[in-house]
Design a protein that fits this description.
Rossmann fold, 15 helices, about 325 residues, alpha/beta, 2 domains
């Protein structure tokens, strides 16, 4: 039994479960950026393929693997996999749906609290010897507690649901919008209220994005979107940078359309030195809290993800249909 693995070998060796099935497998590793045309012949003979969430698995590669039964993304994303080509041959394409929901939700809450407490500027003031001046300024100008806020979640999948659970103990009001309204029982379970996007942008203090990148959502946070937000509102993006128009966000922050932004991801990735979000004036720069797209890459997430991958491979080896099939096979 051969398994072709596209991605970081150290990570796979660290997190792969030590089961009888996984230990017997012959693993062929190829680097993420290696051209698929140059993959070793023994890798092309594999029955199972595990791929980094941003790896490309094109039609040409799929056609060159005659024994292939299943392709499994290491993460939630599977944009680089040609699902149609795999489906034509009856090859399952699976992902780790929901695997990082709790981790990304934690990052969402971190960014919200970091902005409300102005941690970027606060740390700078302490390091530069102005701790008491900063404290006195805050006592006069105010600090907003999360309990005072209305949080609007755009999308209501696994991550947004986890975020709603984590936010409730703070006492904030939580609203959501999605492509369709959820059943009343789901709304009661998560104690959330449906709200149309237009009203959400007008009324919520915090707007948090939790939708995948599609032709409909790419660039959705544009000038028109940002101008509809409250001037004291914060934008949170732990989804994908492609959702946000960088130039429009720079203007929104510079001209005071919104209060700030917490960004775990910005496009393009890797972040380029000329990205306009990195070159704002100091008084505007302090309105942004960045994190390096680490929301979903916790140790616990990887342990669960790799356990799922090998469980899927073992299920397919027994002739069973695996979970989390994304290409309809």
């Amino acid at each position: 039994m051969k398994v072709l693995i596209i991605g970081n070998q150290d990570r796979y060796e660290k997190f792969s479960p030590h089961t009888e099935f996984s230990e017997k497998a012959e693993k062929i590793f190829v680097p993420l950026k290696a051209p698929w045309e140059e993959y070793p012949e023994e890798g092309l003979e594999a029955e199972y393929l595990a791929a980094d969430a941003i790896a490309r698995v094109p039609e040409g590669l799929i056609r060159r693997m005659p024994n292939l039964k299943v392709i499994h993304s290491e993460g939630v994303g599977f944009n680089g996999i040609d699902c149609g080509a795999a489906a034509e041959r009856g090859i399952y394409v699976c992902n780790n749906r929901g695997i990082n929901a709790g981790a990304v939700a934690e990052q969402t809450v971190l960014l919200i609290l970091g902005l409300l407490r102005d941690v970027v500027a606060g740390e700078k003031e302490v390091l530069e010897g102005r701790q008491i001046q900063c404290k006195e300024y805050k006592m006069v100008h105010g600090i907003t507690e999360l309990e005072e806020c209305s949080v609007g979640l755009i999308g209501f999948g696994d991550i947004a649901k986890a975020a709603a659970r984590f936010l409730h103990p703070f006492g904030c009001r939580i609203f959501y919008c999605a492509t369709s309204r959820k059943p009343e029982a789901v709304e009661r379970e998560y104690d959330v209220t449906w709200m149309e996007l237009e009203e959400m942008l007008r009324t919520c203090n915090i707007i948090s994005i939790h939708v995948p990148v599609t032709p409909d959502t790419a660039g959705m946070v544009d000038e028109a979107f940002l101008r509809k937000m409250r001037r004291d509102a914060y934008l949170i993006n732990t989804a994908r940078g492609e959702m946000v128009n960088n130039e429009a966000l720079c203007r929104a922050l510079s001209e005071g359309w919104i209060a700030g932004a917490g960004l775990d991801t910005i496009a393009p990735e890797p972040v380029t030195p000329d990205n306009p979000l990195l070159h704002l004036p100091e008084e505007v720069r302090r309105k942004i809290l960045f994190s390096p797209h680490i929301g979903g890459i916790t140790t616990n997430t990887f342990r669960k993800a790799h356990r799922n991958i090998w469980t899927t491979f073992e299920q397919v080896s027994r002739g069973e249909r695996p979970e989390h099939v994304v290409n309809g096979v």
